[in-house]
C-alpha cells in the first residue's frame, strides 16, 4: 500500500473579517464531494476561489447544500453564496437543483425557469477567519458571502 501524507498547508496571509474578491473555479475532483464523515453521506458543494495570486493559489470552501437558515436564524452559507452571485439580499428565498447547478427565485411554480447556473468565472466577496484545526494547523475558513455590487456601494 502506498503511504500518503496530507498536503502542506499554505498560509495565504488572509486576515479575519476582511473582504476578499474571489472568482469561482471548479475543483479538480468536481463540484460535489464527500468530506468529513460528521456530515453523513450527503455530498457537499465544493468551490475554489481564485483570489488573484500569481502562483494560482485558491481558497477552498465546502458547504452543505441546505438553502434554509441556520439554527441561529442566519441564512445558510449556500443561500448567501447564491444570493451574492445574483446580487440579492442574503435572506432572499430561492430554490436549488444540484443536478444542474441551477437556482431560481420563483417558488410558486415547480417548472419555473432558472435564474442562473453556478459556473466558473462568477465573482463574489467573501469574509472568513483563521482557525486552528484539530491537528494544530491554521486554516482560513470562509464564514459568509456578499455580492461585488454591494461591496462597491459599502466600501466606496
How far is the first residue's CA from the last residue's CA? Answer: 56 Å
Order of helices and strands: EEEEHEEEEEH
Rg from C-alpha positions? 16 Å
Q: Report the total helices.
A: 2
Helix percent band = 10-25%
Low-confidence stretches: 3-7
Largest sheet: 6 strands, antiparallel
Tell me the count of domains: 1
| Global outline | globular
Instruction: Compute the average pLDDT.
Output: 88
The helix-and-strand class reads mainly beta
Proportion of beta-strand residues: 25-35%
Number of strands: 9
Which features would summarize this protein structure in a list?
disordered N terminus; mainly beta; 11% helix; three-stranded antiparallel beta sheet; six-stranded antiparallel beta sheet
Please give a structural write-up.
- The chain is mostly beta strands and 156 residues long.
- The protein has two helices and nine strands.
- The chain has helices at 77-85, 148-155; strands at 20-25, 32-33, 44-50, 58-63, 95-97, 102-104, 116-117, 123-132, 138-146.
- The strands form two sheets. Strands 1, 2, 3, 4, 8 and 9 form a six-stranded antiparallel sheet that branches. The chain has a three-stranded antiparallel sheet with strand order 5-6-7, with no helix packed on it.
- The protein is globular.
- The N and C termini lie far apart (56 Å).
- Residues 3-7 have low confidence and may be disordered.
Amino acid at each position: 500500500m502506498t503511504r500518503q501524507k496530507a498536503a502542506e498547508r499554505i498560509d495565504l496571509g488572509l486576515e479575519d473579517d476582511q473582504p476578499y474578491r474571489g472568482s469561482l473555479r471548479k475543483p479538480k475532483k468536481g463540484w460535489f464531494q464527500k468530506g468529513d464523515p460528521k456530515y453523513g453521506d450527503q455530498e457537499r458543494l465544493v468551490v475554489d476561489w481564485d483570489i488573484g495570486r500569481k502562483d494560482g493559489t485558491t481558497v477552498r470552501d465546502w458547504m452543505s447544500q441546505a438553502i434554509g437558515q441556520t439554527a441561529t436564524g442566519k441564512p445558510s452559507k449556500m443561500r448567501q453564496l447564491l444570493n451574492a452571485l445574483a446580487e440579492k439580499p442574503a435572506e432572499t428565498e430561492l430554490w436549488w437543483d444540484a443536478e444542474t447547478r441551477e437556482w431560481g427565485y420563483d417558488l410558486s411554480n415547480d417548472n419555473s425557469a432558472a435564474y442562473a447556473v453556478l459556473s466558473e468565472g462568477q465573482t463574489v466577496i467573501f469574509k472568513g477567519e483563521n482557525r486552528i484545526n484539530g491537528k494544530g494547523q491554521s486554516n482560513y475558513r470562509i464564514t459568509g458571502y456578499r455580492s461585488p455590487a454591494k461591496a462597491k456601494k459599502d466600501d466606496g
